Amino acid sequence: LIISDRSPIDTIMYAQAMGCLVGHQMKNLFKMAEDWMETYESIYYIRPAGTSAVPDGIRSTDESHRKRVEDCFDDWMERCNMSIQKKFKILTSETIFTKTHCWLEV
Question: Which of 48, 61, 92, 100 fits as disulfide partner to 53, beta carbons 3.0 to 4.6 Å?
């Protein structure tokens, strides 16, 4: 069991949201990431609960950027291979995180 807050597709989504990837370059990166994700048993996608990002000096607090990234993920999740789509478990952050603990029922 491996739990990570990142997946092979994350970097591609951020680059796409910023307009950095086009054409064959993007197609090849998607293919490599999707091939790797085929090896996963389950993929948990945790949507933000609608609250603004807390400034931590690392993550962007720009809501329009956050929305662009989320839209890229949503678009990809609708058009990726059905074998990957079947692995998705979509939750909201408020479902698994509270102020006192974090849990994920597997």
Answer: 61
